[in-house]
Amino acid sequence: MTRQTAADALPRLPSARATWLSTATTVLSSRPFVTAVWLEGSLGGGVADAFSDIDLVVAVDESAPPEVFADPVSGLGLPGRLLYVRDKPMCVDRTKAFAPTCS
Description:
Structural class: alpha+beta
Strand order of the largest sheet: 1-2
Radius of gyration: 15 Å
Largest sheet: 2 strands, antiparallel
Number of strands: 4
């Protein structure tokens, strides 16, 4: 078995990203508490390159289970694992739930 280098993996990243987005879209569309989903960042702006990450925003209503906020990736049933959650930005309504994550 040979060790894979970053140069070997780079050509596969856009395809892997597209597969993840397709799976995430299918999963999220099956969740009745998900009210909207959209892409931000370079993918959302149509200027992504092979190194671009996925900035996916998921809006949920008040019926979302607590698991969604404890670990959004697992709670929503998305592929991958939770890397981080950041605090709600000051410009976001403090009375609403907010949990940006990276997976």
